[in-house]
Amino acid sequence: MTRSSGLTETHHNLPDLAAMGAFGERVAAVLRPGDVIALEGGLGAGKTTLARAIIAALGYSGEVPSPTFTIIETYDAPPLAVPVVHADFYRLNDPGEIEEIGLDDYREGAALIAEWPDHAGGFAHEPACLSIALERVIDDADAKTADGPRIAIARGGADWLERMP
Question: Which end of the chain, N or C, is less surrounded by CB atoms within 10 Å?
Fold first, then answer.
């Protein structure tokens, strides 16, 4: 773990989907209402897979669809230990559109898992934001599979100092 300019950073090798799931469980174990998990990475990096792992670890056993077209999906407590808003901002053309969607209303008392957070103006300025950048590690053997190895770089704001996954 490294600390600089108020952020805490950890690096995680995720050799397969099981490791991605275990990482999601560690994030879920310390998640609180008001937190933001900002998932970054290109197409196919594993953002939705990690979001699904976090939501499942919080106690949701149903299907977790990608919110690419709906933009926002909500998961309430119970059964979840923490209510979650899962958002995919890929389709936003302007960060101002999050006001039209009513994101603040959805976030009240819930944690936010945000895919493509930069399309919504970003959340890294929030102390309760944990930004996770996912990168695929591709070699010739992994080039055609979606479940190959990844690296997760987690950067936590001040609220994450003592609970980094």
Answer: N
Strand-strand pairing, 36-40 and 129-136: parallel
Do the beta carbons of residue 64 and residue 87 sit within 8 Å? Answer: no
Cβ atoms of residues 140 and 1 within 8 Å:
no
**Structure tokens, 95:** 């960060």
Mean pLDDT of all residues in 139-153: 71
| pTM for the whole structure | 0.89
Residues written for the chain: 165
Contact (Cβ atoms closer than 8 angstroms) between residue 136 and residue 147:
no
User: What whole-number distance in Å separates Cα of residue 5 and Cα of residue 3?
Assistant: 7
Q: Tens of pLDDT along 73-120?
A: 999 888 778 999 999 999 999 888 988 888 888 999 999 999 999 999
C-alpha 119/C-alpha 36 separation (Å) is 15
Count of CB atoms within 10 A of residue 146's CB?
10
